[in-house]
């Protein structure tokens, strides 16, 4: 039930968030183009992630899936919340992030240890949430993870 509540809130809030809070342009890169990148690249791994989870690119929200790929975070609701904690630890601040953390912590108090661990890992990593990932799609994912000390959530 608690996952349903958060997923419903996400679906209601996604379009207004894209329209009013995300100012950068959409990438307009189809999954077929992503999987054409070299196998070790961020672009290839992003394309595989999207195919694996049957996702399609969400205009202006592409970085969200990049964060999943870089931190090797799953897509269950507690994992989504832990990734937001990771990004909070890394310095990211947004209405979406704060809302997910607030509601997620209320609805999943039993997962607080997971969230705390993710936050600490985000603090250790060099700031990476603000990078222009569209320009980094050709970069080897391992290089990005190593350079920014990004560890699995």
User: What amount of the residues lies in strands?
Assistant: under 5%
Radius of gyration: 15 Å
Number of domains: 1
Fraction of residues in helices? 55-70%
Report the average pLDDT across residues.
91
- Count of DSSP E strands? 0
Succession of helices and strands: HHHHHHHH
Which runs of at least 5 residues are low in confidence (pLDDT < 50)?
none
Sum up the overall morphology in one term.
globular
Largest sheet, strands/sense/barrel: none
SS summary, helix count? 8
Q: Could you say which structural class the secondary elements and strand pairing correspond to?
A: mainly alpha
Q: How far from one another are the termini?
A: 24 Å
Key terms:
153 residues, mainly alpha, 8 helices, globular, Ubiquinone biosynthesis protein COQ4, Coq4
How does this model look, in words?
One of its GO terms (biological process) is ubiquinone biosynthetic process. Pfam families: Coq4. This protein is an all-alpha fold. It has one domain (2-16, 30-147). It has eight helices and no strands. α1 runs antiparallel to α6, α3 (42-52) crosses α4 and α5 (77-89) runs parallel beside α7. The model has no long low-confidence stretch (mean pLDDT 91).
Short description:
This protein has helices at 2-21, 31-34, 42-52, 62-71, 77-89, 95-107, 112-124, 141-147. With 153 residues, the chain is mainly α.
């Amino acid at each position: 039930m608690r996952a349903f509540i958060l997923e419903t809130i996400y679906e209601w809030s996604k379009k207004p968030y894209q329209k009013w809070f995300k100012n950068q342009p959409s990438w307009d890169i189809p999954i077929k183009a992503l999987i054409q990148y070299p196998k070790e690249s961020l672009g290839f791994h992003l394309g595989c992630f999207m195919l694996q989870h049957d996702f399609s690119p969400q205009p202006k929200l592409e970085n969200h899936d990049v964060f999943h790929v870089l931190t090797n975070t799953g897509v269950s609701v507690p994992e989504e919340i832990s990734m937001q904690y990771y990004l909070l630890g890394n310095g990211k601040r947004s209405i979406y992030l704060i809302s997910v953390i607030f509601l997620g912590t209320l609805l999943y108090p039993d997962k607080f240890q997971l969230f705390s661990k993710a936050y600490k890992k985000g603090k250790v990593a060099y700031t990476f949430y603000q990078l222009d990932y569209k320009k980094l799609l050709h970069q080897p994912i391992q290089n990005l993870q190593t350079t920014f000390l990004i560890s699995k959530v």
